[in-house]
Amino acid sequence: MNKAELIDAMASDANLSKADAKRALESLTTNVTGALKKGDKVALIGFGTFSISARAARTGRNPQTGATIQIKAKKVAKFKAGSALSDAVN
User: Are residues 6 and 35 in the same domain?
Assistant: First the structure.
């Protein structure tokens, strides 16, 4: 399912116009992104939790040349599925 298909499904399920469903989806993604940027977690009970994890700097290898490279530390977004979501897909 892509973004347009998700918007169509949201509009149909919630009896909204496609424009309203698009604004709702954009608001969700904007607010989740903003919370993660601040270092907060976003927990949606039954669905899952979005969080930020720090990945340490490490040494890697270029697979083509075998040369050692340094990989910088960075923050990565994580999603852990809730039990209801996990049960629904299994």
Answer: yes
